[in-house]
Amino acid sequence: MFRELNMEAWSKVHKGIDWTFGLYLRYVLSPSVYLYKRHATVVHMAVGFLCTMILCCAIWGFANLNFDDTDEQAFATGTKAFWKVAHGPLTPLMLVLCTHLIMMVFAAAQLQELYNSSADSLPFPLTCTIICGKTFMIFRMILSYSSTNLGVAVDYFLWQELILVCMHGSLAVFVGDPSPENCLGIPYAKQLARSFLVILGIDSLKTCAMLVFWSSFKPGIVSSYFNRLPNITSMLAVTILVHASFDALQTGTSAFTMFIGRMFVEFMSGTERMKDQPLDRGERSQSMADQLVGRWLTNYGTMVTFEIKYWRIPVPDGLSESQEFEFATVYQVKLPRAKLRLPVPKGKQAGDFVECLELRMHHGLLGYRSFDASSQDLMKSLVDVWPWQPEAHLSADGLILDFKQVVGSMGSFAPFRWTKVVDHKTHKYRENSGL
After folding, report:
1. Nearest 10 degrees: CA dihedral of 165, 168, 170, 173?
2. Calpha distance 129→200 (Å, rounded)
3. What residues have CB less than 8 Å from 87, skipping those under 6 apart?
4. Are 93 and 269 in contact (CB under 8 A)?
């Protein structure tokens, strides 16, 4: 796993952290993220099946509401359900599991950015949003369930999350757009520190607003209908459904804090990151790039895809002949996922258009990488993806790519192999055509 993800072993960490969070990160979270990314389809199917069962149970409950009870009897039912859930043996386990799943999804989303050399920075603060957000969330959850009535708690929680999402989405525009390329010359560390403080202020303001809302909240029709559900199972199903839906909405808004700030800055400044689109061409570069094009399977079971893209882009201002420049070739949610570095061709100057061929690699775990398809050192650029730079050899038939064992100052790294996935019909046609 470490070799495929271009990761180094954890070292030089405080013993106290290593014995607490370190054990969780190393032996619980890391394997969970790896298995999640490797078997994402299976996980999504299992989650989808579970959500369908919970949804069916909730629908059945609302279809069989008990309107025979008085308001006082319904309220007593909600109170009884609350204490059953509070003293249930599975409740602590569910809280731990849900927290772990949130951390796992968060870590999986950040994994490519942490080990993607094409990214300028993480899309949003790595630990600040989790530590600050979850700390404030625990306090707000105490407010939600302080009524000791499950229906009232769900009623309050629903309105609370709607208010929080609206507030967070509105206040996130003040976070800004931290970037190492800031034209004002402000150090990147200070930009991030400012964003952290703004996020802390946003969460503090949201919590203060919830204190005001909590002190003036009165149960409404939501709690009345909830407390009339036929049994504790349907109440639990509706509670889980409400929490999952609104927690996902709230978490999504929090995760996109930096995206909202970036988009607001771009909108106000009228500028946007360069985002040229590749053009379809039948051209192909040298034979090495042609042989790599297609799908490959590593001996670890990860899929790797190569394709060639044609670009026509202007030379940036302030550059002259032989100087190098780079541009983003792959964007996802307004963030660069891969960049291509090129020298300014002879006879070209700022503003002139240059044409180039990009060999784009998509690795199932490492993400996107871009290479100059016309480069004489294409294979060297490929092995530079790994810090130990293993020697690579492409077989004569172009179907096996071997990376040799490396023994050096960084340690010993076992050899690994990529095998090309060949369409037998296409391969036979090429052989008959002499291609």
Report:
1. -140
2. 9
3. none
4. no
**Lookup: tokens for 131:** 């530590």
**H-state helical runs in 172-231:** 188-216, 221-226
The token pair that represents 110 in the structure block? 């950040």
Tokens 């599991």 found at: 97
176-220 pLDDT tens trace:
766 554 444 566 667 767 777 888 888 888 888 989 999 898 988
Cβ neighbours around 84 below 10 Å, total: 14
Do 374 and 286 meet the contact criterion of CB atoms below 8 Å apart? Answer: yes
Q: How many angstroms separate the CA atoms of 200 and 435, rounded?
A: 61
Nearest to 128 by CA among 178, 186, 165: 178
Spans of all domains in the chain: 39-269, 287-433
CB 381 within 8 A of CB 372: yes
Question: Cα separation of 142 and 160, whole Å?
Answer: 12
Burial class for 176, CB neighbours closer than 10 Å (0-12, 13-18, 19+): middle
Nearest to 348 by CA among 309, 312, 373: 312
> Comparing C-alpha atoms, which of 223, 247, 245 is closest to residue 235?
223
**Helix residue spans in 68-144 (DSSP H):** 71-86, 91-114, 128-144
Query: What is the SS3 assignment for 245-281?
Result: HHHHHHHHHHHCHHHHHHHHHHHHHCCCCCCCCCECC
Question: Which pLDDT tens digit goes with each residue over 366-407?
Answer: 788 899 888 878 888 888 887 777 888 888 888 999 888 777
pTM, entire model: 0.54
